Every structure is written in structure tokens, then in C-alpha cells.
Known about the structure:
By secondary structure, the protein is of the alpha/beta class. It contains nine helices and twelve strands.
Amino acid sequence: MMALAATCIAAGPxxxxxxxxxxxxxxxxxxxxxxxxxxxxxxxxxAQESWHSQYNSVFARNVTTATLTPFLPDxxxxxxxxxxxxxxxxxxxxxxxxxxxxxxxxLAAQGVAxxxxxxxxxQTPADMPGFEKSMSAMFSAVARPARPTPEAQIAGIAPQxxxxxxxxxxxxxRAAGWKIDPDRIGMVGxxxxxxxxxxxxxxxxxxxxxxxxxxxxxxxxxxxPAGAPPLFVAxxxxxxxxxxxxxxxxxxxxxxxxxxxxxxxxxxxxGFGMYQKATTSTGWFGDFSRWLGMHGYLKPKAA
Length: 303
């Protein structure tokens, strides 16, 4: 799991963490619309949930109880489609604003219901200095372990997959009240959240996303399930974690004759999310939105 965390941490607007981008503890924000999922507390957890600010954004860590926060569109614009949004952070932290709430608001503005998944995380030191030290040690490792296979990665994130499955079950159970078509619920994830999105399709049993967006996640080849959903992938060519590992996932989807769209931006680094940058990677959401439109998710389903 450590090897995975070392490659899936959500970075900030720049490629690497800069000394000036200090983590500052903040009070846990009010989340009045958050719905607690039924997956229970993280087994053996001792450190309690805490939040911090960084890069003019906010992050959660030591999440022990999963929640789902709805961002519903104006009923006059609602298309009946929905997306589970999975922020990244190496399963140690969650980029709740840049890769969660901001994405959900943008989707809702397009008429797509969005649900930000605050999934359970691996425990980190409760105190901020200890957390910073643990992160620095991970990033400064001279020789990182070999990256696990997709199968090994999936085996290491069972609690998070359970949270994702519960999110899909909850949205489907309330689909009528939220004016959502239960067959038009997809998922988009960032970094570690992208890995969780893929794992939800590969090992999520009843979750069955209608479509998937993987934003700067790992691209190792996988065995593609029969009838796998349309896949959208975005990555920057200068991503320090995933730009030099080949494009096996794209090749896997293509070989299985399943729909796939891949955007490789020249620059953007890792963790660009909804940050406004002077690179074409900033356009990923527009590309994703057009892709959703091409597949019919930006308008109500024809009767």
C-alpha cells in the first residue's frame, strides 16, 4: 500500500510540493448535506478526522467514516445523469475542494447530479508535524518499491471499494427523489481516486458505473470486463508519477473493443484538477464535458 500512496498523492498546482505551500490545520468545515454511508468506521482507527488548507484549497485526512455529499442541478437543467466524484490523495488525504466540490459544482452546472465521495483513508500521524514528516519521508525516498500490480492494488483498498459500492447503492436507492436514472450513474476520480474509480469497475461487483473518468491515475494494463463502460482518461505528459509507465490501460480498453478517449496534455504536472493554470491541462473538464455530451449524458434520455 505504501508504494501506491507514494504514487497517488494529490499534488498542488505545481508539479511538486513547494516549501511555501505549507499545510495549515483548519477546523472541520460544516458539511450539512453530507450523508453517512453504511460501511461503518475504519477498523482499528485511532486518529480522528482532521482537515488542513494548502494551495488555497482544503484537504481532509484520517477519514474514518465515509460520507457522500450531493450537488444537485437546477431541476430545469437536470439531465437524469449522475456522477460519483472521488478526490485523490494517495489514500492518506483527500483533495476535497479542488478534486471534489469544485468538480461537483461544475457537473451540476451542466445538469448532471454529482456526489462527492469522502472515502475512508489509511491512518496518518494525528499531529500536523508528524503528518508533514511522514509525507516528506515518503516523497524523499531514494528508491521506492516497485509499483504493485493492479490486482495487488485492488486487494489493498478493500475499505475504499466498499465505500464506492455503498455510494452507488445510496444514489440508486434515492434515484427517484433526486430525479436520477439509476442506469446513468458514472464515476470520475483523480489520482488515487482514479484508481478507486477503475477498481470500482473491476472489483465493485454491483456498482457497475455507466461511464468512467480517470484523471491523472495509473495506466497499467488490466483485464477488461465484458461490457466495460466508456472510459475517459486525462494525463499530463510531464506528470511525475504516471507519464512514463506506458499506456497499457488504453491499449487494454482498445483491444477489448470498448469505447475509450485519451487526452495526453503536454504540460500540467500532477494534481491540476480544477486549478486554473496556463497549461492546456486546464481544459480537461471541457473535454470531459464534451465527451459526456457525445455519449448523451448532457441531455435527458430520449423516451
